[in-house]
Every structure is written in structure tokens, then in C-alpha cells.
Automatic annotation (TrEMBL):
Taxonomic placement: Eukaryota, Viridiplantae, Streptophyta, Embryophyta, Tracheophyta
Location in the cell: Nucleus
Molecular function terms, GO-annotated: DNA binding; protein dimerization activity
Primary location: nucleus
SUPFAM superfamilies, alphabetized: HLH, helix-loop-helix DNA-binding domain
Organism: Arabidopsis thaliana x Arabidopsis arenosa
Name listed for the protein in its UniProt record: Helix-loop-helix DNA-binding domain superfamily
Domain BHLH, first and last residues per copy: 5-60
InterPro entries, sorted: bHLH_dom, HLH_DNA-bd_sf, PRE
Length: 94
């Protein structure tokens, strides 16, 4: 069997159906607050749903980074041996 035939078989078996894509887009519509709050969320295009999903994930990452920075600053301002410092360290380190 040629390598091109194997790769086409592998890619066809890993493809998802149109129904699965529709279902995933629907789940994203329900999960992203900016879309969910829209009264006509069912009319939002799939590309707009994916765009908003990417924006939402970027914002979540930024918020997580900001919170980590704030916790680091707080940790620097308290006694490193205190119970509060231990809690903050556990939050920072996940």
C-alpha cells in the first residue's frame, strides 16, 4: 500500500461529519457568553461563532495572566511563611 493511500485512509477515518460540526458549533453558541446573550444566537454564522470563541479564549488567558500577576504581587507583600502565602503559592502553581 502506498503512503499516499494510507494517509488518505487515515485522514478520512479521522474526519468529522457535517452533523458533528453543526453540533459542536451549537455547543459553542451555548458556551460563549457574548453569543449566548444574543437573542438571535441561532442566526450567528459558524465563522462568527469561531471568531467569538477565539476572542473569548484570548480574554480568559489574559484574565488568568492578570490574576497570576496580582497574586504574585500579593505574595511579595506578605510574610512568606504565613498560611496565606501557602494558599497563594498553591493558586499560582495550579
Amino acid at each position: 500500500m502506498s503512503s499516499s493511500r494510507r494517509s488518505s485512509q487515515a485522514s478520512s477515518s479521522s474526519r468529522i461529519s457535517d452533523d458533528q460540526i453543526t453540533d459542536l458549533i451549537s455547543k459553542l453558541r451555548q458556551s460563549i457568553p457574548e453569543i449566548r446573550q444574543n437573542r438571535r444566537s441561532n442566526t450567528v454564522s459558524a465563522s462568527k461563532v469561531l471568531q467569538e470563541t477565539c476572542n473569548y479564549i484570548r480574554n480568559l488567558n489574559k484574565e488568568a495572566d492578570d490574576l497570576s500577576d496580582r497574586l504574585t504581587q500579593l505574595l511579595e507583600s506578605i510574610d512568606p511563611n504565613s498560611p496565606q502565602a501557602a494558599v497563594i503559592r498553591s493558586l499560582i502553581n495550579g
